[in-house]
Amino acid sequence: MDTTSPNYSVKVVQYFVIASLIWAVAGMIIGVILAAQLYWPVLNLDSEYFQFGRLRPLHTSGVIYGFVVNILMGTSLYIAQRTGKCELYNKSLAWMVFWGWQLVLLLALITLPLGYTTSKEYAELEWPIDILIVLVWVLYAVLFFGTLAKRNVSHIFVANWFFGAFIIVIAMIFIVNNLAMPASLMKSYSVFAGAQDAIVQWWWGHNAVGFLLTAGVIGMNYYFIPKVSERPIYSYRLSIIHFWGLVGFYTWAGTHHLIYSSVPVWVQNIGIVMSLILWLPSWGGAFNSAMTLLQNKEKLKTDYIMLFFFSAILYYCLATFEGPLLAIRWFNMVAHNTEWVIGHVHSGALGWVGMSGIAVFYYFIPRLWGKTDLWSPRLIKWHFWLAHAGVAIYAIALWVAGIGEGYMWLSQSDNGELIYSFVEAMNFKAPWLFLRFFGGALFVLGLLLMTVNLYKTVRMPSALVTKEA
């Protein structure tokens, strides 16, 4: 075993984390603009480049590929070094991954508003950019697994298991779902068609949530939650069960998006059953993280970073309850394609992923720059309450809008005619769409306060850190 002190690579991690913060703010501001456009259509500005259909994939790609992937790449490389007590596999390769990924995001920023899209959910980017994504992802995989191979300890910490699954599964499903025949430089057609295309798309779409927004973030949290709570993981054995539960069942659940479709019923049933089974590992992992925080109850009462993590866990429980609920046929009949689904997605995206990312930003960024404290503890309190008010207003508004909308769509007179017109359904949900905009604006206002706080923190005079990140 190498007993010399490793020369950890921190600068590239700093770049990934700052890029993540920038994309979090930009992507969610676009989300607020979209919410405003739904309530005030005039805000589309009669522009083909600024209308909802062009901006919506830019919002999802900015948040998923910009905010989340950047923070996962940065923290995974940091955690692999720290837990393995080793240096990065190749520092030049790390910078290639960073700049390669930023090039992907820049190309998305240019092409999506111009209308170049495959029209596939969470996979809208056209084939030349897809090839670049695959190349950068392979370099990232080599870098991450190469670093694990260099580790100076025999044990592989559980966070790295989740990161490894995130890298492997996303690579596999992204490549298969994006198999296409190019028709021109910026237009291609999927090799799949009809029901087959739908199955492959939701195998990708749901597992992009499962292994990028869930497994990757869980891996990050399994490192930082013990750090911030100053306690070990409550049950390391349960964390391993959590891992294998997600790997074993999540990959099968995507077809619950295709209930009441032309997809074979047995394929739909697999999605339903696997979605219901997912309750167990999901809530088991949430219990493990919550108990890790609760081991230090005194600190939890006053530490807002811990409270952000605790809130993320609660929203994880909520999102992983709603998902299986939506997979049940009778509820799917009412809620599918309504605003409820958007509320479900954002209770997970803002509540689980957003709160987790915020907590990591607050804990990690000061330590990466050698600071002991935040510039303003008061601003983090304001952010905490703005974020929670924002998510609650957003989610509750869309739950009400979704159930009402679904009920109105299904209501029929005795002779089978629809009782409510499309316009009546739109008028019903209009005030709830305003609350959606208002809740999202509160959440973004909190992000802006965080950005100011962290910028001022980094700019403070240097001080020695009492505990390493």
UniProtKB/TrEMBL annotation:
Cofactor(s) required for function per UniProt: heme b; Cu(2+); heme
Catalytic activity: 4 Fe(II)-[cytochrome c] + O2 + 8 H(+)(in) = 4 Fe(III)-[cytochrome c] + 2 H2O + 4 H(+)(out)
Note accompanying the cofactor annotation: Binds 1 copper ion per subunit, denoted as copper B. Binds 2 heme groups per subunit, denoted as high- and low-spin.
Binding site for heme b 1; low-spin: H59, H346
Annotated Gene3D superfamilies: Cytochrome c oxidase-like, subunit I domain
Topology in the lipid bilayer: Multi-pass membrane protein
Domain Cytochrome oxidase subunit I profile: 1-469
GO CC, any one term: plasma membrane
Binding site for Cu cation: H206, H256, H257
Subcellular location: Cell membrane
Protein family according to the UniProt entry: Belongs to the heme-copper respiratory oxidase family.
Protein name: cytochrome-c oxidase
